[in-house]
Structures are given as C-alpha cells and as structure tokens.
Amino acid sequence: MAKTNNLARKPETAAPAPLPGGRVHSLDRLIHEQMRLGIVSALAANESLTFTDLKKLLETTDGNLSIHARKLEEAGYIACEKYFEGRVPKTEFRITEEGRKALHQYLDHMEALIQAMKGNPRA
C-alpha cells in the first residue's frame, strides 16, 4: 500500500461565490482600500472638496491623503485642480464620471455580497 503525503498536495481553493444572477465579480481593489473609499465617497457626496477639507473630513495626514489621491487620479477616478487663491496655493478634487461609475459598481457588488450572505443560512 502506497503512502500519500498530504503535505505535498496543493490546498484546494474555493471558487469565488457567484452573485445573484450567477455573475462572479471581484472587488475593485483600488476603491476597496479604506482611505480611497473615503475619498471617492466624500467626493461623490460633494461637488468638489479642497485638499484641506478632505484631510479634515477623513482625519488623515497630508502624506497619506496625497498618496491615495494620486492613485485615484492616476486611475482616472478623481480629477485634481491646482490654483492660487490670492497668494495661497489650493488643491481641489472632483470625482470623475469614471470614478462615480466605479463607486456605484463597488457599492452594487458589496450590496449583492450582503444579500447573498443574508440568504445563506451557513454564513
């Protein structure tokens, strides 16, 4: 009788759970990160926000906000405008149509996951 080494086998990974309608989607990792979700959510609720307004609202540092805003800007989810108000430099952010669409898709996905978990008695 041959001995099998269970440690040598690859663990089986479960396939992603389908959403209602049989669709399988993965979360938008760019938006899923807490600070970036906060940024796009705040901008979706406002026409625009300055860097200072966002920093206060999200209770974060200049560096942290800069890094996450830049990633969202590079993805085309937000737009950044820099200008001077008198002699004071200002940075203003707005959500783009692409960013709004991505946020809605993310929220729809999260809602579908919640509904699927509520309907699953084993969860």
Structure in words:
- By secondary structure, the protein is an alpha+beta fold.
- The protein has five helices and three strands.
- A hairpin with a 2-residue loop joins strand 2 (78-85) and strand 3.
- The radius of gyration is 21 Å and the shape is elongated.
SSE blueprint and pairings:
Blueprint: H1 29-32, H2 34-45, E1 49-50, H3 51-58, H4 62-74, E2 78-85, E3 88-95, H5 97-118
Antiparallel strand pairs: 1-3, 2-3
Helix pairs in contact: 2-4
Quick synopsis:
With about 120 residues, this protein is an alpha+beta fold.
If you consult CATH, what is the topology?
A: Arc Repressor Mutant, subunit A
Strand content: 5-15%
Query: SS-based structural class?
Result: alpha+beta
Sheet with most strands: strand arrangement: 1-3-2
Please name the fourth-level CATH homologous superfamily: Winged helix-like DNA-binding domain superfamily/Winged helix DNA-binding domain
Q: What is the total tally of β strands?
A: 3
**How would you describe the shape?**
elongated
Please tally the helical runs, counting DSSP H or I stretches of 4 or more residues. Answer: 5
**What string gives the helices and strands in order?**
HHEHHEEH
CATH class: Mainly Alpha
